[in-house]
Design goal:
With about 325 residues, the protein is mostly helical. The chain has 14 helices and two strands. A two-stranded antiparallel ribbon has the order 1-2. The protein is globular and about 60 Å long.
Length: about 325
């Protein structure tokens, strides 16, 4: 499954130019770091959701490009800060900003990106779009802190897991879709429809990401990484809720005391697979995927709807 880039090829080029301009700085060190970041951007999924959502709801305009840039600025800021929090030396196969410029510069870079995003919207009176994205940043912080709290106690119910991923992951994708819709239509109903669509895609996206932790092939994320970090994701939550007491005690002991031992981490992964945790999480992911499709198909058939359809298929079928 390929990304539907051909549908918005010219718009993506325009967005990239606008994003580079938005990220520029007159401070030499800052500009050098920003150029490093821009060259190593990911697949640009979130800007694509902004652009295609706008195209679906009326058409891409200058406000859409600013919304896409704001989404990417905020997303990049959170990634830079995440690498500090996680003590991560790599980002997308390259050295992270944190690895190259250390903590102080990384925190300041993240703050700079947040400020540039705020000013981009305020300078152009994109107040509704700024509100949509600022609310997403608030939710992302709340989700990360809730996950941190639960990781310490190793007690988490399935509904709390959904709350965490709805906030930390799905909120930004939901805001990308709703910001794109608003930029093109100024229509509350369409904006809410696309917000709900994006949230369901985001939920499926995160569950898919969590399933990678139990994959055996090379998928760009270390197998067992969530276990090592004591993160309770859906496959593990299901297993802990449904296994016998002896197995539960063994899993909890490994996570608390042997979470850096590869053989013990592999044992947990085997128990999760055996218990049906992988299948359960896959079924839940597919349910969110179906919800997203149902919302999308409420819109008339068009190239932009087909593009969003292909985009959510990519999210579900990606290998990394």
């Amino acid at each position: 499954m390929n990304l539907p880039t051909a549908l918005i090829e010219e718009e993506l080029k325009t967005f990239e130019d606008r994003f580079k301009e938005a990220a520029k700085s007159r401070v030499p060190l800052l500009d050098r770091i920003m150029r490093y970041i821009v060259k190593r951007k990911g697949k640009q999924l979130r800007p694509m959701f902004v652009l295609l959502s706008a195209k679906l709801c009326g058409g891409i305009n200058e406000s859409t490009y600013r919304a896409a840039s704001l989404v990417e600025l905020l997303h990049t800021a959170t990634l830079v800060h995440d690498d500090v929090v996680d003590d991560s030396a790599e980002r997308r196969g390259f050295f992270s900003v944190y690895a190259l410029w250390k903590t102080k510069a990384s925190v300041l870079i993240g703050d700079y990106l947040l400020a540039k995003g705020l000013l981009l919207s305020l300078d152009n009176n994109d107040h509704r779009i700024l509100h949509i994205l600022s609310d997403a940043v608030r939710k992302m912080s709340e989700g990360e802190l809730l996950q941190l709290e639960k990781a310490r106690t190793l007690t988490i119910k399935e509904e709390i897991y959904y709350e965490i991923i709805r906030n930390k992951t799905a909120s930004l994708l939901a805001s990308a879709c709703s910001a794109g819709a608003w930029s093109a239509s100024n229509d509350d109903n369409k904006t809410e429809q696309l917000r709900s669509f994006g949230e369901n895609v985001g939920m499926a996206f995160q569950i898919k990401d969590d399933l990678f932790d139990y994959a055996s092939d090379k998928i760009g994320k270390p197998t067992g990484n969530d276990i090592k970090e004591k993160k309770l994701t859906l496959p593990l939550i299901y297993t802990l809720d449904n296994c016998d007491k002896e197995t539960r005690r063994e899993i909890i002991y490994i996570i608390k005391n042997k979470n850096t031992d590869s053989s013990h981490v592999k044992k947990v992964a085997e128990l999760v697979t055996k218990s049906g945790g992988i299948q359960y999480a896959t079924d839940k992911m597919n349910a969110y995927y179906k919800n997203a499709k149902n919302i999308l198909y409420q819109f008339p058939d068009s190239d932009s709807r087909k593009g969003l359809d292909d985009l959510i298929d990519f999210v579900i079928n990606r290998k990394y």
